[in-house]
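Tutorial sheet, problem 5. The two components below are modelled jointly, 664 residues in total.
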Amino acid sequence: MKILITGGAGFLGQRLARELLKTQQKQIITELVLADIAPLRDAVLLADPRVRSVTGDLRQLLADGVMSGIEGVFHLAAAVSGECEADIDVGLHTNLDTTRALLDACRSLMQPPRLVFSSSLAVYGGNMPEVIADNTLPMPQNSYGTQKFICEQLIADYTRKGFLDGRSVRLPTVTVRPGKPNKAASGFMSGIIREPLAGVDTVCPVDPQTGVWITSPRFAVAGLIAAFNTPREQWGGRTAMNLPGLSVRVAEMIAALERCAGGGGAAVAARVRVQQDETISTIVGGWPWRFDPVRAGALGLRGPASMDDIVAEYIADYPAAVAVAAPTTDAP
Amino acid sequence: MKILITGGAGFLGQRLARELLKTQQKQIITELVLADIAPLRDAVLLADPRVRSVTGDLRQLLADGVMSGIEGVFHLAAAVSGECEADIDVGLHTNLDTTRALLDACRSLMQPPRLVFSSSLAVYGGNMPEVIADNTLPMPQNSYGTQKFICEQLIADYTRKGFLDGRSVRLPTVTVRPGKPNKAASGFMSGIIREPLAGVDTVCPVDPQTGVWITSPRFAVAGLIAAFNTPREQWGGRTAMNLPGLSVRVAEMIAALERCAGGGGAAVAARVRVQQDETISTIVGGWPWRFDPVRAGALGLRGPASMDDIVAEYIADYPAAVAVAAPTTDAP
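Model answer (structure tokens):
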């Protein structure tokens, strides 16, 4: 099977690519095309003969025929929430128009490909019930969420028409992301764990009592792959599926950091300084943080059991990024 | 005030234009621009010095500056459901891309205009609760409904950003429409009343036990004008509003025709022949027909009281189109 990952050189794209290429998946992947605006730097992926990395604007790559022979797509590429809020045209171009171009490229194939679309909890906001159900009406309160929700609708209609076999999943905020901060309004949810563990001071731009809905990279990747592998009839409907996550307050994230950072935990956690940012607080504070993802649960999907597990997973997966004392817990 | 109606030469656009120009509205309308792909033929409107009719593709008209000085917009222009289902590209161009161009034209104005968008009950479908509430999740089951729902999202986000003051209303099927049949899947809901009253045989393409959610032209126009005139804070939120209507089975529509058509009513109703069309039955059968439009009700909006009222309204408003015996009831 020939698979395309858009945003394939991004953090989640690379994690997904590595997982897809693992032994148990080997027989099905003949070629894995990683398309991204940025060049692929992951040495493991670059060394794999099945991996082909293509770099450029996705619309140009599509025009250049990147979809040729593709049977499966993971569409992760997107402008992030902070960028979209700062410049609606960037979001409309990158998230809406480019997705449409991708969907039309799928449609032009002889065999309709399977497509997994990473949508987001950011579709929700505004006056919501306390717990988000699978059929809660999204009322996006930011441009990123609006654009994601619109793409969900297009994918559902293209699926109904038989142009592709689309499955949209709404990811909780994925944390802890390695590497440098990005412009996502949710970026601090990784930063407040990652930076202190690296011995770097960082800012928490929201009230620590803010509740958030998060998942770890391992669970996010597992959810994306399950969305791809689940038979259509079992998937159930064309509406986007809320993936499971963990409901946690930011203060509890910092407390878990302290617990997981070994002997010097208190000093590590002290590297987080609260300094509220109005724009970020408004965006993140508008997102719901309690969900009841029944549909995903029925497929056997689950989220991280605790914030301690999430911190431990990061320490286990990115040991080189951890400058502090040895962790006291193992990854789940 | 200078107002633009897109689809202004269409049936609903002309009705809306006439109503807006009536005495009680006179002081506020300085110019009413009716933009349409088809030329305006309404003699009353053509004779009104405040009316300016412009003909052409809306995107071209926008490029030619039709929005110059506009303070209010009623966006009614759309490819209808049957067209969109037959050719998704027609719908994406006419309903999605053209609406985006309109919204961007609004955004380019110095003063953000007020905009009323006519969305549709067609956003709903699939596995729904028996009664549609204001916050029921739309899961569009046809391309027309998908495109309308997407435009609602764009308008909500543009409103949030302050580019315009948008109010989206979801109209029940408007019946009885005068004139010739169009390609809307819902077209028969007018045809089964209009054609027999004109002495013409017609086909009902769905099971007469099918339930439908309808309103009359007068109530539809009143809803659009209320959406325009209601103060923002009273309008409540940026989510599209379900307008009130009447829940009725097709068989009851035909029975009302028989009652309202005077002495020869049975012969008039006998002009309706049931011959099911699978495409139309699928689209229309997928639409809900029981609603609880609480939000609209709180603004004092209401729908027709009965099917008899709807038939009587048509007979009163379009006497020249009625070939049969004098009606037995008056318009509401």
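Marking note: The longest strand of chain B covers residues 114-120. Full credit if you identified this.
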